[in-house]
Amino acid sequence: MRVLKFGGTSVANADSIRRVVETVLSGDQKKQVIVVVSAFGGVTDDLLDLARHASEGGAEVKERLKKLEDRHVGVIRSLLNVKKQSDTLTRFKMLMNELEDVLQGVSLTRELTRRTTDFILGFGERFSALIISHCLQNEGVAAEFVDARELIQTDARYGQAKVLLEPTCQRVESFFEKRKGISVVTGFIASTPNGVSTTLGRGGSDYTVSLIGAILKVKQIEIWTDVDGLMTADPSMVKRAFPIREVSYEEAMELSHFGAKVIYPPTIQPALQARIPIVIRNTFHPELPGTVISETSGDREGLIRGLSSISDVSLITLKGSGMIGVSGVSGRMFSTLAREQINIILITQASSEHTVTVGIQPEHATRAKRSLEKEFRLEIQEGMIDEVRVEKDLSIIAAVGDNMRQIPGIAGRVFSALGRNGVNIVAISQGSSERNISFVVSRKDEKKALNTLHDAFFMAGVKTVHLFLVGVGLIGSKLLELFENQIEVLYDKYLLDIRLKGVANSEKMLLCSDEESIGFSSWREQLESEGRKSSLKTFVREMKACNLPNSVFVDCTASQEVSEIYPEVLSSSISVVTPNKIANSSSMEYYDELKSLAARHNAAFRYETNVGAGLPVVATIHELVTTGDSVHRIEGVLSGTLSYIFNSYNGEMPFSEIVRQAREKGFTEPDPREDLNGHDVGRKLLILIREAGYRMEFDDLDIENLVPKGARNAGSVEQFFEVLKEFDGEFSELLNSAADQGKKLCYIARFEGGKASVKLEEIDRDHPFYGLAGSDNIFALYTDHYLETPMVVKGPGAGANVTAGGIVADILRVANTKARSNDE
Predict the structure, then answer these.
(1) Which residues does the annotation mark as catalytic?
(2) pLDDT tens digits for 231-260?
(3) Host H or E run for residue 591
(4) Model pTM score
(5) What is the pLDDT of residues 666-708, one digit of tens each?
(6) Phi/psi-derived region of residue 635, left when phi > 0, alpha when psi is between -120 and 50, beta in every other case
(7) What is the DSSP letter of 301?
(8) CA 139 to chain centre
(9) Distance from CA of residue 79 to its chain's centroid?
């Protein structure tokens, strides 16, 4: 015998029902099959709305009823051949007439009782089972419509009736003992011994199939839905959630109690008592294995089996010194709520007995408060108990797993992970079974908390990188902005968890403890409000004291002082990533020392952005040399600033104004003389020369200083610009001289034959740099492998965006290198 249940999404439309029919017929045709079905997706809600509108005398009841009828008729006409449609439509119309009659009665009396509501809500399953049974008949198999009200008897607690097991067992056993073929049974509905319709409450169809399966002692119960099984977390909240292959009955009950909507708590009870596995499968992906719920949870390695949550709860708290040592307070509280038929979701009490807190559904909060104030009015008047407190907009999250009973420290890991991510815990509760840790958080933190715990317990292989950033000017702040925008992508696609642990500028610094991180979106405010006076030595000392794995020191300054602490950082096995070119362009001895320290202490030293912003120049030369190639000649326009200036300078605007314009666009240093003097280009060329394997000092370079001698000693930047105007004529002469020959001005860095120069040159149209535009840089590398035709790298060579992007790339290279080392 095979017993299956299909939920509302599985029978939402004609296409879905076709899949259901395929699934049912895919099994052994010789076996007896029982198919329990829900109403078409959304129909139960539609029926409830119809009932409410009818009770209010709503004029649109007929229109809504017609819409409901048309939906079902459309499915019938779509799925059945013409010859089969007539009988199905007739039977369906009889049910619709019955529904219309009862709604008419509700409309006339303007009264909607729970009993009548149950009768109305049951039509959804009756429609669905009738249509699906006829669809199966349409395929040439023996199938019959079965009304579960003839099988399942309950008490008269309408809306959530309790099953009377003895008569139900007798009826189910007797009915199916004589049946063969396929029985399509209505889920959700039942009846009293007097034949009055009832419903089994939330998840009632699941309970129906579990009950029938348990009574008939089938090998397994199949529940088909729209997800791939019971998930590690709600996939709408946690994108990285994945199906759990096996869980125990107890784990499933805990998860379902706290909001796992795939299955509901009552469903599990009959199967648990009969020790029958429940298999949850996806109707739309039948090839997937789904989840098996049985006596054991299978894989015993995982610390937590799954996470679940209830998105909207309220806390009711009794608090007062008069409660300490007084017996019966909790009992009175629970009894009061029970009389009001208010279900308690969570209970927590302080060991001092000073407070008792319970979690309930928000819609019951006002009634609960009022009833408790009435129950404890004397104690409140005498000051023994404070005013009954209600807290709203909260969520309950539960971490569930059988293994939690055996392994210490799970709670510590849970709350530590939440604390690191700034999630405040409002209340905590842990059952004596120790397989569930439940806690209450602000509703706005629910998604964040679920994702935090899911990452901590389920995402194996995640690489955490700890960043310590010095320099948050234009480039540093852009770097943090890039990480803010990319942080989820880096985690989702590359399993990189980037954490900002320290940040400093020239005035303030801020470092975090192991449990905390600085927000990529809030670093500025945190630095301003929590930062201490900046001290580079203190920053480095405390960074080292953190002793965190995969730490990266990022220097986004142009400071000599910062570059001088690299040896101390690298010696502590902390990687360095920097666009600051001072260290690599200082003495050859210092350059060698940094390389040696990085290798000796297993730390990365990355500085791709020293030259060409985000262009892959340093790495390209390094790879060429590493693979045995030799670089003979380097030519390039290595300054985005000077590239922009001379590409823009065409005589229409004075040279001094072009320089001022470049400064306003952010292409130059605050003092443009630092660009015009050629030292920046010289440092870049020197770094490339050293990367190519040559030994050279900065003083060996022949650099042409473009700052006129008369302007070099100007006191301020504005004074510099005033003096520079006096030399506009000289630059104009240079421009015109080049133009007269059909050439243009270009500031070129060149290395060949052991000599290096940086000079302003006139180049003609045949030169590969002639077509350079904007602030682009260009590099031409002549090597053994690229001797006749050089390797050319061209692109933006200035700007905070491309530089920050290059730094991010270097950090990711460090992360990947460290990850490989750790794996090895």
Answers:
(1) 684
(2) 899 888 887 788 989 998 888 888 887 766
(3) helix 588-600
(4) 0.60
(5) 788 889 999 999 999 999 999 999 999 999 999 999 999 999 9
(6) beta
(7) -
(8) 44
(9) 40
